[in-house]
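Hi team,

As requested, here is the filled-out complex form for the zinc ion run. I kept the field names the same as last time so the parser does not choke. Let me know if anything looks off before we queue the next batch.

— J.
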Amino acid sequence: MNNETCIHGGVSPITLLSNLHHSQAGSGRHRCPTCAYEQGFNIGSTGNWKSYDEYCASLVDPEVCQNGAIAPTYILSI
Ligand SMILES: [Zn+2]
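And here is what came back:
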């Protein structure tokens, strides 16, 4: 798998980045997608949730984009 390392040291698969939606809406506008992927991967790797839906239901600060995707506001604001 080919990965990309961003200027912050985050790592994510190039295929994932090329398939990201082009929306720049929400509080995470212009944030680094590579760092976002890495943080999401690390959270998912903890095994604390059975699915992404279960994780989203546990969020106290969810932000929903125009496509219906959910992310925690505390990560978007970093
Ligand atoms: Zn980054």
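Two things worth flagging: Residues 6, 8, 10, 32, 34-35 surround zinc ion (CB under 6 Å). Residues 3-76 form one domain.

Thanks,
J.
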